UniProtKB/TrEMBL annotation:
It comes from the Eukaryota. Transmembrane segments: none annotated. This is 2-oxoacid dehydrogenase acyltransferase catalytic domain-containing protein. Pfam families: 2-oxoacid_dh. Keywords: Acyltransferase, Transferase. The lineage of its organism: Eukaryota, Sar, Alveolata, Dinophyceae, Suessiales. InterPro entries: 2-oxoacid_DH_actylTfrase (IPR001078), 2-oxoacid_DH_E2_comp (IPR050743), CAT-like_dom_sf (IPR023213). Residues 1-118 form the 2-oxoacid dehydrogenase acyltransferase catalytic domain. Its cofactor is (R)-lipoate.
Length: 118
């Protein structure tokens, strides 16, 4: 179950926070309404907090995209000088419905998301 915030683009930061707290409280109490989990277009699920490193999100019918983040891990990576350095790495997996968008659009979105996260 992935609850979603409706009309997030029309809300300010405080309104988003209030709705997020409402939905989180309802989820913790087992009182999510059907409306809380339906009708989303793009959903981001942070399931990495429960330990998974390679998430597998499932798209609800009618949704355009769902993304799921894995847990953040410190892994060795090479820098520009080819030296091994520790880096924070987080896997994210996107699933999209081709009735709403094509793979290239989702790849561009994913690249933009990566840039914002970094």
């Amino acid at each position: 179950m992935v609850p979603n915030i409706k009309d997030v683009g029309g809300k300010n930061v405080l309104e988003i926070q209030q709705e997020l707290m409402r939905v989180a409280t309802a989820a913790q109490q087992g009182k999510l309404a059907l409306n809380d989990i339906q009708g989303g277009t793009i959903t981001l699920s942070n399931i990495g907090v429960i330990g998974t490193k390679d998430p597998r999100p499932i798209l609800f019918d009618g949704q355009a995209v769902i993304g799921a983040t894995g847990r953040t891990m410190t892994l060795p990576r090479y820098n520009a000088k080819m030296e091994l350095v520790p880096r924070q790495v987080m896997n994210i997996r996107w699933v999209g419905d081709h009735r709403h968008l094509d793979g290239a659009a989702l790849a561009r979105f994913s690249n933009s998301f990566k840039t914002y996260m970094e």
